[in-house]
Amino acid sequence: MIERIRRLGRLGCEVLEGLGRAAIFLGLSGAGLPSAEGIRLWLRQMHFVGVMSLAIILVSGLFIGMVLALQGYTILVDFGAEDALGQMVALSLLRELAPVVAALLFAGRAGSALTAEIGLMKATEQLTSMEMIGVDPLRRVVAPRLWAGFVALPLLTIGFSVIGIWGGQLVGVQWLGVFEGSYWGNMQASVDFLDDVANGLIKSLVFALVVTWIAVYQGYALIPTSEGISRATTRTVVYASLAVLGLDFVLTALMFGELS
Amino acid sequence: MTDSPLVEVEGLHFSRGETEIFRGIDMAVPKGKITAIMGPSGTGKTTLLKLIGGQLTPDAGRVRIDGQEVHALSRKALFRLRRRMGMLFQSGALFSDLDVFENVAFPLRVHTDLPETMIRDLVLMKLQAVGLRGARALMPSELSGGMARRVALARAIALDPELILYDEPFVGQDPISMGVLVQLIRRLNDALGLTAVVVSHDIKETLSIADYVYVISDGQVMAHGTPQSLDVDRDPRVSQFIHGEPDGPVPFHYPAVDFHADLLGTGGPR
Question: pLDDT-derived band of residue B1, with 50, 70 and 90 as boundaries?
């Protein structure tokens, strides 16, 4: 019994220690003003993390918007409320689906790649040799990736929402015959910029920070073997997904629940 | 040793988990000389280099480079000190997203404001010194192991460091590139007057270029002296290592229960 309690305590200490390490790591890499060179590196990562994720995000956004319209229509039409389709599609996307699904896809597409890339740089001693040259890898390797993820995901989320709403229109208006004026008009009347658009963006900023942080930290802290890299990549996707879903509940409760 | 030492190690203790790797190491690396650190594999020679470079922190003891205590420095000061050091890694550790030219130019670009033409000249000079000026456009993945190590050497000397640390420079090299590397290390030292620490267990090559040798075993300095004095050392442990005898005070067998008992299954687990 005592042994169990002791083990639980040790586990708790280890978890706290890990969190502390990750927080120091975030502080060391995220702080400081960027140099001209830093901006160049950041732009390169924006291409890798952001532009290269564009295809998967946009295609997923299109399909999700289309499915939402299809599902929404079959339910709404029973109540003769299909005019509210635009409102339903836009609100579900802006408040919930775009930030969450984009973050999950981002963790799978860009997060795992970041972990594997940094991990391989560690395994081939590139990070150590950079340190020995007198260049801090936290500033040179980690910081541009961290900032790229932090900026890229919210932008991708906006793209996701826009194309999703357009996909909903495609199915709802073009295919199922909802009146176009009511699709857009109801959306315009019911979507509030601060309540819906801004809150969705805040969510996505939080997810961007958490997902990229987990990805680069897992890469930086992994055990530099092939097994270590594969484990860390898996951990990135698992931890990031769970963190996104858990935080989404908390944020939703704060933004839209009774708590506010 | 008449020169004042550039690197001083005092009473260094270090352990990884439960395993004690160093139990009180003392050594001095004189300025302008090649000092070799030798010892059987697994004695932590690379770990010692990492302790000198400040990548690992000792449990006890001190490492001083040019009077500065490495592990007492702030992160910033440590990085500043490292600009005066070069390190050649076993794998070369070239940046895989940059070509040969850019790899060598990297330290110059991050630490100096030299104009592009000057950087180009310096990089070509360093590449010429290692014989790879013609390979400047290749990517690290297109290089052989020996070439990668030479490029890494060019990068390590790009900023004309005072101290250069070689981590197993001869491992896995064919005889020709081995000869090239041995010559390069000696020549760079004579021409640039830099201080070098070579970690290696290739006895012949290392003894041929070293001015002073430390032999480490069991977490302690087992012997030290000039290559000539070690060659005639009577200590059976030193002699076993220097002359490469398979068995002796350093046993061939990893510690185990009695072989006979083990076969009969009475020796312990499995």
Answer: very low
